[in-house]
Amino acid sequence: MSVTTGAGRPASTTADAGTGGDLLRLAERVAGWAGPGEEVEVFVARGEETEIRAYEGEVESLTSATSSGVGIRVVSEHRLGFAWAGTLDEALLTTTLEEARDNARYATPDEHVRLAVPDHVPAVPVDRWDDGLASVPTPKKVEMVLALEARARGGDPRIRQVSSADYGDGAVETALVSTTGIRSANRRTSGFLSVGVIAGEGDASQTGSGFTVGRGVADLDPERAASEAVNRAVRMLGATKGPSGRATVVFDRRAVTTLLAVLSSALSGEAVSKGRSFFAGRIGEEVGSGLVTLVDDPTNVRAYGASAYDAEGLACRRTVLVDRGVLRGFLYDTIAGSRAGVASTGAAVRGGYAGTPSPGCRALTLAPGPEGYDEAGVLGAVGDGVYVQSMTGVHSGVNPVSGDFSVGVEGLVVRDGELAEPVREITVASTFQRMLQSLQVVGADVEWFPGIAAGQTVAFGNMQISGV
Amino acid sequence: MIDTPVLERVLGQALRKGGDFAEVFAEDRSSQSAVLDDGRVEELASGRERGAGVRVIRGETTGYAHTADLSEAGLLRAAETAAAVAHGGGEGRTVPSDPRLGARGGSVAGERSPATMSKADTLELLRRADEAARSSGGAVSQVQAGYGGSLRRVLVANSEGVLATDDQVRTRFSVSCVAVGDAGLQTGFETAARTIGTELFDDISVEDLARAAATRAIAKLSARPAPSGEVPLVLAGGSGGILFHEACGHGLEADHILKAASVYAGRIGQRVASPLVTLVDDGTVGSEWGTFAVDDEGRPAQRNVLIEDGVLTDYLWDYLRARKEGRVPSGNGRRQSYQHLPMVRMTNTFLLPGEDDPDAIVADTPRGVYVAKLGGGQVNTTTGDFVFGTTEAYLIEDGRITEPLRDANLIGNGPEILTRIDAVATDFAMTPGTCGKDGQSVPVGCGQATLRITGVTIGGTAE
């Protein structure tokens, strides 16, 4: 599926035989335009996508698109310049390289600024590509989303409205070639179904959402997406504003994925070296309870973010960040690693052709708790507390630099180890530092969600609830 | 960008299989940005994106296809794809498939200054901001300053004869600081963003911006945990009209209304807020961040009064939702880029100023929380529950602003909070923001004068 070769080694026939072969050749050609004394990295991407939205038994909209683009980094005299274009037109490829070259002239010279060089770590050939997706006819996709909408609508007599029912799929191929010997290609397909419902009783309305993702349509489980949305909306009916006080707070799997994704930015070697992480300077120290083991492992093919290569073309690899409460490491790309005096951990990520690489997680997990600790097990261990089924204001209330944590939540009261009445319009607050210390129970019900982290049911002790 | 006869042929192709409406949206966007971080100019970036989307509506179904290929052949292919999609949507009206453009004309933005600043001048601004932030106090440990300038040229043509273009020039400058103290790290952020070119820097001082960000971070080093529970809240003028954007703005977007996914559905003519509340959405205000000449469906921007003296007067409309209701759109059809379908979006949304004195409002508040700056927010339009975060807040004790508080989210229910506004001052100011909806981001403005809410729940860690 994707191959990197070191400097001077011949390209593998696998890469060129695949559909990404022409992209590799294109990237190679552009990198070949490098002038004397400059290093050039060329990232090219090409994708196709379909999005279908259903409403009241009809297709509300269907979008079909192809896109492509290029991102070029130029380093000369330890100065970096970047330019991108949302096209692979020959004329714009030339001007994009020229722009990147010109931009480099204005950057501050910095000995750490450099492109990745092959480090000979072999890539694990994880495959997130489904050949079958391309042959799924559009009417079949339409049928799936209409069925999802109908299933959600009929899921419970209290469902008043299916506010959204979406199908989406995409296939993206990328290639990366540099004058420093990097040559890699990645490709992946993805498919999803998601649904949002409104449940009502009397004057009250509540919402719930559910989704299912996979490499293609065969992996999708529409029944689960629909029942999840229905259950989440219906069980919130009758919710009232809860009381203020200190409590043990149980976060459901989806919420934990979000928590880990935010926390991950404090584990970026770049954030650490620039003093923008509360973990800075704490390697080897105890930063959490013994239950806290955090590992980023993009070589796990089950992870949504699994990948053979990182955004600089190095092999993705498993990195232990926190081991039984002790901070062990950070994630580095080439430049952040150089600044810290370490090698890249193969953790460069980039937001498509319009972004430059920076270190980040692709597949972060909190080590699972004891066997059999599913959601019910965690609730039973907790006894009394608050169960969070969704959070709002994560971008406005959680600060990965200071660690301050304050989010709006909706969920249910936990009483005697069981879910009881629903609560809404309350906030849960603490700091990440305290939460890691007060991690009380960790579930074994790990599930991979779209994004950069997995989630399982987790309970933190002594959080501040703000309500009435 | 595309010749009129080509647009006419593409629209004709889009309607050949039947359909009620066809539209071509083309966009050519170039951008330049620069970041100074950790004392170094780390990255200058240039970007260019151009392409077009063809939309065909037939009955209740919309087909959309977009392409980066602006040749006639590329546009015709997109038109065929969109038409095929819409055809699957069942019966609709069929309009003649030979549209003639220009019947209703369009508007063109006036002359603007150069879209982006020279690279050398940009670096100078970044260095000045860095220096001003660092000299604000020894506790400032990290400064990131960023410049972004863009020129977005849009062209919209549709089968109803609309042909409109707009050149949207936007400039943004922001500073983000970290301060370090005994209790750890704190952050401060400040941004200026307007729909103008380099003349933004005639109006604002990057040094002032940098000092505001630095001061904010430093102040929070000695901050105590924010309280928890319900408190009276005074929001400073221009602290971020995000309150109204979240508490009711999103709930007044017609797409939510028509799906009964808003607490404000069916409430036109009813009292939904305190009589002190007159809420306006206006895409024509000066050079604010949410301003444009024509929206992404070719409608001129306009001023829309949504709530007048506490009574709900109207919603926000795009083409599709207005058509369903048999009315005219309100200039609120926007999209992130040609790769997206348009939907109902806010522009500049603000509360008109009142008559109170801002200092008198604080003096008249025995105990509460004073918010000098808000961060982002989020709302569930169906329930009306929303949150918004503070990035600079203080305690009010005995009518005086006292100790700084650490960041926290506030949570409330839109319709309830709007009735609890009991004072609005005269010190109106606008702030820029980025609004995300359904995966699409667009620039918006928010504005309000100093105001008081009698009770809102603050989510701090203090008991």
Folded structure, characterized:
The complex is a heterodimer of chains A (468) and B (463). Chain A is α+β, with helices and mostly antiparallel strands and 468 residues long. Chain A is built from eleven helices and 21 strands. Chain A folds into two domains: 222 residues, PmbA/TldD superfamily (PmbA/TldD fold); 227 residues, no CATH class. In chain A, strands 3-2-1-4-5-6 form a six-stranded antiparallel beta sheet. Chain A has a five-stranded mixed β-barrel with strand order 8-15-16-17-21. In chain A, strand 12 and strand 13 form a beta hairpin. Chain A starts with 12 loop residues before the first helix and ends with a strand. Chain B is built from ten helices and 21 strands. Among the domains of chain B are: 91 residues, PmbA/TldD superfamily (PmbA/TldD fold); 232 residues, no CATH class. The termini of chain B are far apart. In chain B, the strands form four sheets. A six-stranded antiparallel beta sheet of chain B has the order 3-2-1-4-5-6. In chain B, strands 10-9-8-13-20-19 form a six-stranded mixed beta sheet. The radius of gyration of chain B is 24 Å and the shape is globular. The chains are: A alpha+beta (468), B alpha+beta (463). Strand 2 of chain A pairs parallel with strand 3 of chain B, so a sheet runs across the interface.
